[in-house]
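thread: overnight batch results

M.L. [08:02]
morning all. the overnight job finished for the chain we discussed friday. pasting input first so we're all looking at the same thing
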Amino acid sequence: MIDQNTRFLIVGLGLIGGSYAMGLKKKGYHVDAIDIQEESISYALQNNLIDHGSTYDTALIQQADIIISALYPKAMVTWIKNNQKHMKPHAFISDVSGVKSGIVEEIQNFLRDDLHFCASHPMAGKEVSGVQNADDTIFHSANFIITPTAKNTQQDISCLKDLAHILEFSHISILTLEEHDTMIGFLSQLTHVIAVSLMNTNDNTHLVDYTGDSFRDLTRIAKINENMWSELFFLNKDILIQEIDSFMKEVENLKTKLVEHDEEGLKTLFRQSTKRRKLFDR
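M.L. [08:03]
and the structure it wrote out:
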């Protein structure tokens, strides 16, 4: 479905949208972009990340074969609903958003019959934001998740697999919407909860002169976009609360081992965590 004549449109030139644009341009594809920030468009044009860009230009929408929304989930729903009238017949749409349930179904329910929307999620990022920090190499060791529904075709899935290969993701997975949100609740959202909670446990400003790598590593993702992550947390609220409860139960389990001076029990927990963590080493 993707060939060298395919025209891409990136909607939202933040870190991920800008990195998509960078990776696609490096491979010789035509890439346009829409972003509400004029300075983001200017930067992308000046640095050859895109061919054309605008804060809003219906011609760019009309010409696009593949549209990638890099907007927040709720903003994406509104943008697609308002702009699908400008899209060419059989245009393909995907996204990069971190929550799927409720969002994907809504889009597919109102979408024109001749348009195709299949959701996906690049499991990549940085602690910085904005197109000025775009870096397509963040995808090269990252996982790419496709979340089709019964309304998607094999061709839709193949298109996203092609996109993932072009951007050089290291691994591609296919999950249901529910599987994705359950997975993301644990692997991404809960880890952000832990990092934020660590930073808010006390005023640790004075500790910056003494801390080692352990604290830095654990709190790296605590530098957080409060608008985006608040939206993601609330959209996945029920799953995330379950994960927080499970985590707190496990912390209490470890605490009990300390209170009861259960040395072997504590070592068992350490051995189990070490064994499980080794699975993530590459």
